[in-house]
Amino acid sequence: MTFFTTLKSALFGLGALAITASGALADDLADIKAAGKIVAATEMHYAPFDMLENGEYVGFDRDLFDEIAKELGVAPVYQDLPWTSILPGLEVKKFDFVLAPVTMTAERADRYSFTLPIADATVTFVQRKGGKLTTPEDAKGMTVGVQKGTAQEKQLEAYGEKIGGINVKGYGTPDEAYADLMTGRLDAVAGSAPLLNYLAKTRPDDFAVVNPPFGTPTYFGFVARKGDGDTLVAAVNDALKAIEADGRMKALQEKWFGAATELPQTMPQL
Question: What confidence tens digit (pLDDT) does each residue in 184-205 have?
Fold first, then answer.
């Protein structure tokens, strides 16, 4: 074999390697378009965002993502998983997209690709009707429940340190915390304002929200894998802007939250 033949073979091999490498670069949006469907995971126990009613998945996220999928031109497929397994499941590619409302934090933004905000996520307290809290500061020394592994849990812990101590009790789902609140095992439950306002609205004889919210103003977003999912997030953002522009977002907010809230049309500072 001559030097030129060897060189030609080497160059061909490098070219083939480059083609293979570029072909191996994942593009989640392209894969979803090719499959004609997008598999999205959430925990269906987070009213009014995600709920099971008579075995059927309903809620703000379901209605919103149905509209997003129409904009993308694909069929949505929904998975119900425990919250603690959702972000790890996204990383190992068990599904395409996280539909659960994920609180936007700088730490998570380093790891995942966030969409534009889909709802307010500022933290507040809910208590039993006629409870002892008149302001958030009254939670000092009390036992407060919160869903484990959430940004709301971190904000509650930080707030407890600020006011001189809160006994924080973690739960697998908000529903478990509400049940303990009703039996008197908790003084309050911490969660995002839309979640707790919905709870108090639908069960006014049982629960009352403690205003004002105590947490740092934050937002919920959906997430995809960073890198592979960046083009997918860009397409979802375009869909969200279209849904906002023609009034569909306002209608969904009024349906599920009772009122419309203006959301940032650019990524908030985290």
Answer: 999 999 999 888 999 998 999 9
- Rounded to the nearest 10 degrees, what angle do helices 230-245 and 60-72 cross at? 110
Which DSSP helix (H) or strand (E) runs through 53? Answer: strand 51-53
SS3 241: helix
Q: Per-residue pLDDT for 5 more than 60?
A: no
> What is the secondary structure of 107-148 as a DSSP string?
HHHHHEEE-S--EE--EEEEEETT-S-SSGGGGTT-EEEEET
Q: How far apart are CA 79 and CA 95, in angstroms?
A: 8
Angle CA 215–216–219, to nearest 5: 105
Which residue did the predictor score with more confidence, 216 or 114? Answer: 114
The total of other beta-carbon atoms located within 10 Å of residue 229's CB is 24
Predicted TM-score (pTM) of the model is 0.78
Residues 228-241: tens digit of each pLDDT: 999 999 999 999 99
CB 137 within 8 Å of CB 163: yes
| Closest of 134, 150, 142, 137 to residue 166, by C-alpha | 142
Tokens of 252: 């969904």
Pairing mode, strands 51-53 and 207-210: unpaired
Q: What is the pLDDT of residues 115-168, one digit of tens each?
A: 999 999 999 999 999 999 999 999 999 999 999 999 899 999 999 999 999 999
Q: What is the CA radius of gyration of the chain?
A: 22
d(C-alpha 88, C-alpha 94), whole Å: 9
